[in-house]
Design a protein that fits this description.
This protein is mainly α. It has 15 helices and no strands.
Length: 345
């Protein structure tokens, strides 16, 4: 035991660096594997050559079918999975720290229910993929706006905001049930139910390019607030003593996270547990400092949802909804965190 202890003391200083190397390499490896996996297998060499050919022209040694599958089908879907996973994980980490609640998630303020209603309404009336994306985003932001109304005059705005999110979420959940009731049970209803369970099967280049700027801009803005997030997670009084404008900064951060979550939900549907589990896993690895926590959430969130999406589209002949697998995996994982007392903010 003494020899093991001495060996551990020697390698202890390099463990944090090894963790960061792993966090950076992991999404890259899973990304390449995702482009290979599927009913039509493409080798690693072919994937790398196809991707490089888009940057540096070279002789084509692969089939046109392989290029179309990689570039037109798998590449947009893989990028979308990474963006959604990263966005949900970042939003979950921020909400947990901001509300000082380990059970907070990106959907705390009613975003998912608002987006669900918007998507269900668009499927019922238009059934166009772009219209579904836009409607889901608009109504998710409306839900957050209604939640803000509950906390405008409240002294303890964080608690009131969470309660407002519960109320608004329940309202939009009831409206979704109403749309299900009036929808055509043979065409519209199955489409609504499948969307609500979460999937990336409808992702294409157009949908991806529409949402991509939102992910980049608002993750960057949240990163700029990383120091303030550390202070705000200490509580309002502590934050004020550091000279932080609590109300202003909280509103800016919540708006950024809400738009980020709305962008994620608009292209993937409602995918639970990612924004709840990944932030806790990231804290276990790098600690609660948002300067380290946010990059860790981006790497782990992107890797996690990309891996789940690969399982959903390859395990069975019919694609499994993402929300089903994330719940099956996330529930025991979160229970393990609770058992090990690793659930915090």
């Amino acid at each position: 035991m003494r020899a093991i202890s001495k060996h551990y003391e020697k390698i202890k200083p390099i463990i944090p660096h090894a963790i960061w190397v792993l966090l950076i390499i992991l999404p890259v490896v899973i990304f390449v594997l995702s482009l290979m996996m599927g009913k039509f297998h493409v080798t690693t060499t072919e994937v790398c050559r196809i991707l490089l050919s888009k940057l540096i022209p070279s002789d084509q040694t692969w089939t046109a079918l392989a290029e179309n599958i990689v570039v037109q089908v798998r590449l947009p879907r893989a990028i979308a999975a990474m963006l959604v996973g990263a966005g949900l994980a970042v939003s979950g980490a921020v909400f947990q720290g901001l509300f000082r609640n380990p059970l907070a998630s990106p959907y705390t303020l009613g975003v998912s229910n608002g987006a669900g209603f918007g998507a269900a309404l668009a499927i019922l009336l238009l059934n166009n993929s772009f219209a579904i994306q836009v409607s889901a985003m608009i109504f998710s932001l409306i839900a957050v706006g209604l939640t803000f109304l509950f906390s405008l005059r409240a002294q303890n705005s964080t608690i009131t905001m969470v309660l407002g999110g519960v109320i608004v979420g329940s309202l939009f959940s009831a409206l979704v049930s109403l749309i299900k009731f009036v929808a055509d049970p043979f065409e519209k209803l199955p489409a609504i139910v499948f969307w609500l369970m979460g999937s990336l099967s409808a992702v294409n280049t157009t949908l991806l390019l529409t949402a991509l700027p939102l992910f980049v801009i608002f993750i960057a803005v949240i990163w700029l607030f990383r120091w303030r997030l550390n202070v705000l997670s200490l509580g309002d009084e502590e934050a004020k003593s550091y000279g932080v404008d609590v109300r202003r900064d909280r509103i800016i951060i919540i708006v950024c996270c809400s738009i980020l979550t709305a962008a994620a939900v608009s292209i993937s549907g409602v995918i639970g547990w990612v924004g709840l589990v990944i932030p806790h896993l990231s804290r276990m690895l790098v600690g609660p400092d948002f300067r380290k926590l946010l990059p860790a959430c981006i790497c782990l969130g992107a890797s996690y949802l990309l891996l789940i999406d690969d399982l959903c589209r390859t395990l069975t002949a019919e694609e499994i909804p993402l929300g089903v697998i994330t719940a099956i995996v996330g529930t025991p994982l979160f229970a393990y965190f609770m058992f090990r007392e690793k659930v915090n903010w």
